[in-house]
Every structure is written in C-alpha cells, then in structure tokens.
Design brief:
Elements: H1 3-19, H2 28-40, E1 44-45, E2 54-59, E3 66-72, H3 99-115, E4 123-129, H4 137-143, E5 152-159, E6 167-168, E7 177-186, E8 190-191, H5 201-219, E9 226-235, E10 241-242, E11 245-254, H6 257-278, E12 281-290, H7 297-309, E13 314-315, H8 326-330, E14 335-341, H9 360-379, H10 386-391
Parallel strand pairs: 3-4, 3-5, 5-14, 6-13
Antiparallel strand pairs: 1-2, 2-4, 6-14, 7-11, 7-12, 8-10, 9-11
The protein binds nickel (II) ion.
Residues 97, 99, 132, 157 line the site of nickel (II) ion (NI).
C-alpha cells in the first residue's frame, strides 16, 4: 500500500476509534473493530484468552526470532471538549491519551508487515493491549503466556507538546515507578460544639496532608525526582457533626522502587505520629502500581537509527513522572518505548487533547520497521551481548 493510501485509510480508521472510546476492560466494540480490520487485511489473529484486546501475528520464516509491537486501546473517563467533528459519541468517555492513535498506527503496521511477510526473518506479534490506564492490562496479557516466546518488544506513545511526526526516545527509565496509597483515619465523631469529647479525624488528616508534603521537599535531593500528591479527601456529611473517619488517597512517584518505598515508609511514620498525637487510629496501605520503563540502551540507539533511516527527526525524550505499564513487558523482554509528536494544543488527559492524525502513516512505518528490522537483526545471529546484561 502506498503512503498516501495508507495515510487516508488510517485516518478513516482513526476517526472511527476516536468516536467510540471505551474504558479499560470494556473495549468490546474497539476489539471487534480491530479484529474486523485485521481479518480484512489477511492478518492471523491468535486465540489468546483475552476478554478485550487481542494478539495477532505476522508469520515470516518459521522458527525465526519473535518480536512484538504493542499498542494500548483503552480510553479515559473524560468528557471531550476539543471541538472535533469526529468527537466522542460515548458521553463521559474520551480517547484523551491518544490510544486511538496508537492502535491505528499498529493496524497500519499490520497492513505493511502482511505485505512483506515473505521477506520477514521471523514472526512479529501485534499486541492490542486492553486497560493501560491503571487497570492492569499488561499483567493480564503477560499471564496468557502468549508473549513467552518474544525476543524483543517495541511500543509507541503520542507526545502532546511535540511537533507532529517528531520521534522522542531516551535510554533507561523514562516513565516513573508509580505507587498509590490509602489512609483511613478513624477518630470518634460527635457534636461539632464539643470537639473535646471527640477525636477529630479531619484535623488529624489535615496534619497528615501538610506533613506529607515535607517528605520530599525536606527529605529527598532536588536532583532526585519524586512526587507525592494527595488526590482524594473524603470526610463528613454536614456542618455541625464531627465525622468518625476521614479517607485520604494519593500517589507517590519516583524512578526507583527503593526511593518510592522510602517515601511510602516515611508517610507511614507520619501516620503513626498522628495516631500518637491526635488519638486517632489509622489504617495505612500502599502499593506499587507500575514500575519504571527501562529502555535497553543498545536497542534504543538502534531504534533511533531505524527512525532516522525512515527520514524521521529524533530528539531525546524528557523523563516524565507519568506511569506506563509497558514497563511490565520490559521486566521480562528487552525493548524500547518511544514517543511520537502529535502537536496537541492541550496536554494528555485534558478534555481538549487532540492527536493530529498526520503522522499516522509514519508511525505505522516506524513500528513495522522496528518489528521487521529487529527480527532480521536477531536472525543474523547478532544475538546481542546486552541480552545477558538485561537478564541480570
Ligand atoms: Ni497513554
């Protein structure tokens, strides 16, 4: 398929997916449409036990290396306000993180790879992953075992502020380790006129919120990025009753598990201090939701060269405190997560986010080149020494 036809085909796919966003693990229409378009392109769909999302395969030389290309397919509970003539038709739901762009680009790669199957040195698996937005989609996909034979994996994410079609990537950790916490402050409720007979959970919670902001500002080097945000406070029912409890939730982010753990433990100490000083009882729990991405340095360099060969501009990717569950694949499989500019007037997750569809065909070509090129490189038995390094 020539580039002009590919671009117009992908734009028509893209506007359909943008109109029909679905939340994590609810991507039934999205999956059905992906399936239909893959079948139309003559692409084999594997029988992976996934409720939503799917894994397809382009089979080249049998017994050759296996590479994987991943796109996420879920949307966000955001009410769209971008003024597009192909706006979301699902109220309260929007492709505000560009996953419609990712999955369309991967469909484009599927079309291109299908055409080139005879010259493919191995197998390329095409992963349309459900539920990237915090619901654990990558874990569900890994648990199917359908990626167990994959030698290298590549994925792409749109970057709002970058000009359309520019590629951004850097080695190492570019997305943060993401943790979440929950603090239930249990006091003793009563009449607002008699606080001395109560154990006020709101005042205790307020102290925790304020004190928590000193963990990073006073305790972590300014050269070592970390974030702690309290994002949810629930307490009380009316103005003259001191409630019995207050719930706090929030997130902690850092680039290493050790750093995040240290911050989470300090938050626990603050909770214990509040129990002591305010006479409340506190249930404190925290967990790690997503690990840092880990772009293999040698493969990152190779991916950048591959992009340049296609005439794309490549710039370094500035690390983000955002999370990305592509990291879970990278814990087992060497790979690279890269970004493509879509020149949006608003940031990701904003109701005014717009992914410019102009670089769709370029993104498709790049994904196809990565999948095919990696298979060729691996088949040439340049099984690179960094594989051992990664396994360690
Ligand atoms: Ni995203």
């Amino acid at each position: 398929m020539d580039k002009t036809t590919l671009q117009s085909t992908l734009e028509s796919y893209f506007t359909w997916f943008h109109r029909h966003p679905e939340l994590g693990f609810e991507e039934h229409k999205t999956t059905a449409r992906i399936r239909e378009l893959l079948v139309q392109a003559g692409v084999e769909i594997l029988d992976a036990p996934l409720e939503t999302g799917l894994i397809a395969r382009i089979q080249g030389r049998p017994g050759g290396p296996v590479t994987a290309l991943r796109a996420d397919i879920d949307a966000l509970p955001v009410t769209e306000a971008a003024g597009l003539d192909y706006a979301s038709e699902h109220p309260g739901c929007m492709h505000a993180c560009g996953h419609d762009f990712h999955l369309t680009a991967l469909l484009g790669a599927a079309i291109l790879l299908r055409e080139e199957a005879e010259t493919l040195a191995g197998t390329v698996k095409l992963l349309f992953q459900p539920a990237e937005e915090g619901a654990g989609g990558a874990r569900v996909v890994l648990d199917t075992g359908y990626l167990d034979d994959v030698d290298e994996i590549y994925g792409l994410h749109v970057m709002a502020a970058l000009a359309p079609g520019i590629i951004a990537l850097s080695p190492g950790a570019t997305y943060a380790t993401v943790g979440s916490f929950r603090i239930l402050v249990k006091g003793r409720g009563g009449h607002a006129a008699e606080p001395h007979r109560c154990k006020d959970p709101i005042v205790a919670a307020a102290q925790i919120i304020t004190k928590a902001q000193t963990i990073i500002s006073r305790g972590v080097s300014p050269f070592d990025p970390a974030v702690l945000s309290v994002t949810r406070v629930l307490a009380g029912t009316t103005w003259n009753v001191i409630p019995s409890d207050t719930l706090l939730e929030g997130t902690i982010r850092a680039f290493s598990v050790e750093k995040l753990t240290g911050i989470a433990e300090n938050l626990g100490k603050i909770c214990r201090g509040a129990e002591e000083s305010d006479g409340v009882e506190i249930e404190y729990t925290w967990r790690i939701n997503t690990y840092s991405t880990n772009n293999d340095p040698a493969l990152t360099e190779w991916a950048a060269e591959t992009a340049k060969t296609l005439g794309l501009s490549v710039v370094p990717y500035p690390p983000t405190m955002g999370g990305e569950d592509f990291a879970l694949y990278q814990q087992r499989i060497p790979g690279v997560f890269l970004n493509i500019g879509v020149g949006s007037p608003q940031e990701l997750h904003n109701p005014g986010f717009i992914a410019n569809p102009a670089p769709l065909s370029a993104a498709a070509e790049l994904l196809a080149a990565l999948g095919k090129g990696a298979a060729a490189r691996l088949a040439r038995n340049s099984r690179p020494p960094w594989r051992n390094f990664h396994a360690g």
